[in-house]
Predict the 3D structure of the following.
Amino acid sequence: MTPRVRTDLVDAYIFRRAANPLGMQFLQLRRTTEPYAETWQPVMGHIEAGESASEAVRRELHEEVGLALPSDAVLGVWALERIHPYFIAPRDEVWLTPRFGVEVRPAWTPTLNNEHDAHRWVARDDVESQFVWRGQIDSIHELLDVLTRPERAALLRVM
């Protein structure tokens, strides 16, 4: 029997900037549900029947952290081009997850649903030590690359 491959998930990396671009911070949420209860994650969720990845991330942002798209709190949304496969051993599944970057205003605060019991902002310089999964770290590095190259940022911006 081979692992099941899933493509019905999305990730969203919410970030905010200080006046100095190096002052970027990335939102993490502490999960309350298995398989990774008590781990710090970005917004993650399932694509429902009939939804596109973009529609799913819009819904998940609203459900998990109370962030509506569009809203005055959102400064931009980018679709990342790389898919980082990862293996979920307890479920014997390989997940292929479209990923998005979402910039919010510095004063925005998440409203957590019951899937999370805490949030924190991780400084750009601490991403490597605070994000556990290589695919998540790579996604943040890709997002940073996109944001420093205006021609790429324009092409990958979805809102």
Observations:
- The beta strands are 4-6, 9-16, 25-31, 40-41, 43-46, 74-79, 86-88, 93-95, 99-104, 116-123.
- The helical segments are 53-65, 127-130, 134-148, 150-156.
- The first strand starts at residue 4 and ends at 6.
